[in-house]
Amino acid sequence: MATTFQPGLVHTPATPFTREGAIDLDRYRKLIEFHLSNGAETLALPMHLGESVSLSDSERRTLLEFVIKCVDGRKPIIAHVSETGTVIAAALAVHAQEAGAAAIIATTPYYWTPPPRMVLEHFFRIGSAVKIPFFLYNAPEDMQGSKVNAELCLKLIEKLPNFAGVVDLSFDWQFMIELISDAPIVHPGFQLLAGAELMVSAGAIGATGMFAPLAGIAPRLVRELYELCRDQKLFEARKAQEQLAALRQTVKPGGVASLKAAMRAMGRDCGEPRPPVLPLDAVACQKLVGELDTIASLRSEPRGW
Amino acid sequence: MPTKFRGVMQSPVTPLKADFSLDLPTFERLLDFHVRTGATAISWPHHKGESLNLTIGERKLFAQAAVRVVGGRIPVTIHVSALAVENTMELARHAEAIGADGILAITPYFWAPSLEAIHAYFVRLCSSIALPVLSYNSPSYLAGVEITGDLMSRLIEQLPNFVGVKEASFNSEKFLEISRAALPQRPDFALLTGVEYLLPSVPLGGVGSYSAAGSICPNLCAQLFDACVSGDWPRARELQYKISRLWILFRDQYPSSLKGGMVMMGRPVGPTRAPLPTASPERQAYVRSELERLGILDAEPHGW
Fold it and tell me: Predicted ipTM?
């Protein structure tokens, strides 16, 4: 079965919380509108920087239903359904399909480090619980090194007709080339997407889409990089790539706390992260803002909502 | 001045006789083969040349042969990485004495050195000779030990002869951190990849690579480089996919299978020293069938 859904540029919104730590749905509605009017072709949520693992099962369901209602068919939505237990993840996948998500995405199970055979079974049971496209999220950086190889992906393709592609956060050239030179032969339409805003190399290799965790901070720069890579203007894309790499390295050490502090600096306050993640202290915040000031491209980014 | 270390540079394997001793006449033929088939530089002995299975005396002997046979037609660099840093220092001085064009050195083996220790190592090495020094970054083979962008930047600032890197992390993020740190400071810094990973690196400022498969398919190497620098991405992709299949074929117990493949191309170079195995006749036949399937057997030179 060839997959026709092409996610393209995928924004991955943060999850705003109130001072009391509840999901701030009013703020979330604003944020979703911001992403839709600033270049998103698809939304994926809640990803790890959207604090998926800090939301209760019912909050994840409520959140997804809320966003689908807000977006009202204007853009497709990919539901992130990663979980530790296979059955729990598969149930989230079924809910996502029923709620109207265009696709689901899942990474390797949290905490367990199962052998490849069990990882394969985990993905198979999540993907086969639904008919909508399934994307595999290869994110060793988020998962303490747990990752997949091309061989596992090829086995999964044979078993799972709705396995639509890999969203890659490994940045590993050997993996990406091995995967994308083989997978589309077995499964026409199989896609490789860059899992963050490092798209020049991935785009050269054959990635057709990009997940953009930094889109809440710098949507114009993200869009510029994506379009240049999509149009295969790879030499021309280098400057935007280097600016986004600089932004990524600025935000990366503090993770979601830095992401939220940077969004606040851009006039889009989404509150603080939920425990156990601590917010940046005043000194770290000031340092972050100082570093953001050195990234020239941020000056032409939208401020506020 | 643009760097002289660019394009697809070849690091010859080390030909051995049946008794595992060095085979000088075959080494000379191989060097000449690489020069004639488009190598932009020679570098020896990489891990592929079984560097760590050779004695220091053997390394000096063949380094001298490499400089002599190439005879100035293209640059020759000597890979000086050794288990003991004192041996590295000795090989570096030797490389300078025999008239090599530069040296290549990896972060120290075994000790998992800190960034400060890596810094001290390169300062000592670069200060001991006047030759250009290329660094070699290979975190996946060295338990995560690597030259970060910040460290690269400090070394460039301090050392005028620290001129490039063989970047073998094969990782977009690591490559970008190095390119962002190095190129604004030294625009002619040679950003090179290990193996022929040109497609993902050239758009980010890469100027070339070393080569795993050049003794099998020199034509493919040159075509890939040309496609990348001219920005012909569809063609570059097709060629990169093909040459990467060869890397997957050879990287297992590298360079045993590569030496096996060379037999099939009419360029036998003998066995591989222990603990690496020597490619069995069955393995050689498998490599041959893969070369045939990829269309390499007929598109590349046979014999010397």
Answer: 0.95
